[in-house]
UniProtKB/TrEMBL annotation:
It comes from Desmospora activa DSM 45169. It is found in: Cell membrane. Belongs to the binding-protein-dependent transport system permease family. GO terms for cellular component: plasma membrane. PROSITE patterns: ABC_TM1. This is Carbohydrate ABC transporter membrane protein 1 (CUT1 family). The chain crosses the membrane at residues 12-38, 71-91, 103-123, 151-177, 198-222, 257-277. It is a multi-pass membrane protein. One of its GO terms (biological process) is transmembrane transport. The lineage of its organism: Bacteria, Bacillati, Bacillota, Bacilli, Bacillales. Keywords: Cell membrane, Membrane, Transmembrane, Transmembrane helix, Transport. Pfam families: BPD_transp_1. SUPFAM superfamilies: MetI-like (SSF161098). Residues 67-278 form the ABC transmembrane type-1 domain. CDD domains: TM_PBP2.
Length: 290
């Protein structure tokens, strides 16, 4: 094929992706950036207000509480999710019928947010919930999880870990199966123990997978919304009010689309900043074969 035609074929193949990226990412992002500088109630004329929406946002104590709650949720869920997912993947990697268990753990991921929320409202109920019943069998009096402002974020974090666990288990399993047996055979010939093989072979060679899971977990945790909306609506008070819920309330309950879009811009920039930091730090601990 002539070089000129080959180039046009290449453009034709990437065109669907580029058009999708333009229509559903770049144009909405540009519109959001412009709207964040406007005052707009969703119906009337838009008025340019410069950075007033951002100034209002950062002075709003409700938004400040939402940021704190979102960071608290992120700190609770990410290490917990990664550690449990890794341990489960290590266990599943050595037992027969791992595909059955993989489906079992992945089922919550494809369950709707409303279903997950309703089920966990019942499980976490302070009076007749299953979780408090289990804790009472070992002499622990469980709190009223969703009505106690000290426990509502940990309760939602438990749901978040359970909901996203299956996805990370599958990713870790794929990473484990990509590690060559030759490394373990060589270590066994040198008399390495199980722990030595784990810390000197498995963890380093699994670091690219761990890095991917960590990046995705940060992005997902910063955007927590579904379970909060269904289970608490941000309550009690503002104890579980998170950034995406703040964005929703400003737009669809208070009609302040400019402030809501400014919230989205701040969230986008925060996720972008943390992702860049993660990529910078990854050079210190992520190891690639070859």
């Amino acid at each position: 094929m002539h070089h000129k035609y080959r180039k046009w074929w290449a453009y034709a193949f990437i065109a669907p992706t580029m058009i999708t990226l333009l229509m559903f990412w770049l144009i909405p992002l540009g519109f959001a950036l412009i709207l964040s500088l406007m005052h707009w109630d969703g119906f009337g004329e838009k008025t340019f207000v410069g950075l007033d929406n951002f100034i209002y946002l950062f002075q709003d104590p409700v938004f400040q509480r939402a940021v704190v709650n979102t960071v608290y949720y992120t700190v609770l869920t990410i290490p917990t999710n990664i550690i449990i997912a890794l341990l489960l993947a290590l266990a599943l990697n050595k037992i027969p019928g791992k595909d059955v268990y993989r489906v079992f753990y992945f089922m919550p991921v494809v369950t709707s947010a409303v279903s997950v929320g309703v089920i966990w409202i019942w499980i976490l109920n302070g009076d007749f919930g299953i979780l408090n019943s289990v804790l009472s069998t070992v002499g622990i009096a469980g709190p009223n999880w969703l009505a106690d402002d000290r426990w509502v974020i940990p309760a939602i974090a438990i749901v978040g870990v359970w909901w996203g666990l299956g996805f990370n288990v599958v990713i870790f399993l794929a990473g484990l199966q990509g590690i060559s047996r030759s490394y373990y055979e060589a270590a066994e010939m040198d008399g390495a123990t199980t722990m030595q093989k784990f810390f000197h072979i498995t963890l380093p060679l699994l670091s690219p997978t761990t890095f991917f899971v960590a990046v995705m977990a940060v992005i997902s945790s910063f955007q927590v919304f579904d379970q909060v909306f269904v289970m608490t609506q941000g309550g009690p008070g503002k104890a579980s009010h998170v950034v995406v819920l703040h964005m929703y309330e400003m737009a669809f309950q208070k009609g302040q689309f400019g402030v809501s879009t400014a919230t989205a811009v701040v969230l986008f920039m925060s996720i972008l900043l943390f992702t860049i930091i993660q990529f910078k730090l990854s050079k210190r601990w992520v190891h690639y074969e070859g």
